[in-house]
């Protein structure tokens, strides 16, 4: 389902960037797909998300929307996501989730 970006959205937007070598990009993408299918999309407050891969296969960005900030934070604290994030982190050189608010839509 497409995610409509509107300036009046009062929930939480999270953009996470994962950096890796081209050799591990497929593994990270598989792990993220599995996390979204098995865990993340079933969490309270999850509204939708998307995965993006750059041409060089050195970065993956995820975009997710949540009803509220606490919903995203609660998902991160679940035992299953803590274990999954440790495995994903081992495949990456760096990853960082950042919470955003919509400032403008064009």
From TrEMBL:
Statement: the UniProt record of this protein carries the keyword Oxidoreductase: yes
Example of a GO MF term: monooxygenase activity
Keyword field: Monooxygenase, Oxidoreductase
Matching InterPro entries: ABM_dom, Dimeric_a/b-barrel
Domain ABM as annotated: residue spans: 12-102
KW Lipoprotein (keyword) present: no
Name of the molecule in the record: Antibiotic biosynthesis monooxygenase
Organism: Pararhodobacter zhoushanensis
């Amino acid at each position: 389902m497409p995610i409509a970006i509107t300036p009046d959205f009062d929930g939480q937007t999270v953009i996470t960037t994962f950096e890796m070598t081209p050799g591990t990009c497929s593994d990270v993408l598989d792990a993220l797909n599995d996390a979204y299918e098995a865990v993340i999309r079933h969490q309270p407050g999850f509204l939708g998300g998307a995965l993006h891969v750059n041409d060089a296969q050195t970065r993956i960005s995820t975009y997710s929307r949540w009803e509220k900030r606490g919903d995203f934070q609660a998902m991160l604290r679940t035992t299953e996501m803590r274990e999954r994030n440790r495995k994903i982190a081992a495949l990456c050189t760096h990853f960082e989730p950042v919470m955003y608010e919509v400032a403008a839509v064009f």
